[in-house]
Amino acid sequence: MTQPTDIRRERRDDGMNEHLRTALDLAASGLPVLPLRAKVPFGNCRRCANNACGGRPNMKTSGPCTCPGPCHAWAAATTDPNVIRSGPWRHAWRRASTLAYHPGGAGLTVVDLDNANAIAWARETLPTTQTVPTTRGEHWLYLGAMPSANAVRPGVDIKSTMAYARWLGIGTGTLTDLPDAVRALAVKEPTEVRPVAVTVPAPAGGGQCPHRTPAYLERGIAMAEQRITEARSGIHAEVYRTFLAVLSTHGRCGCLTDAHITRLFTAAQAKGETARHCTDAWTNARTRLGL
After folding, report:
1. Of 44, 84, 187, 267, which has fewest CB within 10 angstroms of its CB?
2. Is the pTM of this model over 0.70?
3. Contact 254, 200 (CB under 8 A)
């Protein structure tokens, strides 16, 4: 017969606190979850610091990173119960203050209304939907994913793809389809992209591609630009993979020039990548290939 002390011991041994249990329930319903510490994601582990691993884990569009821990913020969100219950994640759940989910990963968009004025605007402008109270305002949830955007108007943020939202409960109301009025909030006027200066190693082999014609290089760069431009999610990982592909083919033959690399950086910046992310992705790709 199991004694009360044995039951208490079993409960301690299972390592499942309230956040972990909630995370498993949400994951079973299709919400990709992640632990939060003081309302922010856990920092990357040592081997993933400064994006040294070259990518984000647990996402279909991830880079090569296979870190078992909850690294890379929103990109670590998962519905896999084996990951959620794994050793590194269990350690994080014990230290977590709350949990979050990746709305875009579940096909959702959260309109984060941060104050009373923002709520009043939403009630006048947007269709009613499922609503969750927050500390200072409300989350309005819509069925459908879109690019995330901050400060689309005073007190209003949009959290969907490549973002996380705190789990604050189910809320009230019924989910409705994502309206065009919300999608329009994230549309910005086109801005001029200023290419970043890139330092390229001196060409080897006279700058000629030894295995194909110059047209092969031009076609490869054009295809790389197109691949970045047409990416719909996981932009940073896609940029890294594209840089890696270009360098694996042409990085050793010396045919890449400043003009070629500037084209790639310009395409990445047009998708919202910063100059620092471009440089990091290029450096990490070169390091992985031993260039």
Report:
1. 187
2. no
3. no
Q: In this predicted model, what pLDDT tens digit does every residue of 49-70 receive, in sequence order?
A: 776 776 665 443 344 577 888 8
Return the ∠ at Cα 142 (arms to 109 and 21), rounded to 5°: 70
CA distance 94 to 86: 12
Sheet holding 33-37, edge to edge: 40-41, 33-37, 98-101, 165-166
**pLDDT, tens digit (0-9, with 9 covering 90-100), for 203-239:** 434 445 555 566 777 888 888 888 888 877 677 788 8
By C-alpha distance, which of 30, 170, 27 is closest to 89?
27
- What's the distance, Cα to Cα, between the start and end of the chain in Å? 65
How many Cβ atoms are within 10 Å of 191's Cβ, its own excluded? 8
Which amino acid type is present at position 281?
A
Closest to 124 (Cα-Cα) out of 153, 145, 86: 153
Q: Which distant-in-sequence residues (6+ apart) come within 8 Å of 96 by Cβ? A: 19, 35, 36, 37, 42
CA distance 281 to 73: 18
- Burial tier of 111 (Cβ tally within 10 Å: 0-12, 13-18, 19+): buried
Task: Name the average pLDDT for the chain.
Answer: 81
Q: Which pLDDT does position 179 carry in this prediction?
A: 94
> Which alpha helices (H) appear in 65-213, and where do they start and end?
81-84, 87-95, 116-125, 180-185
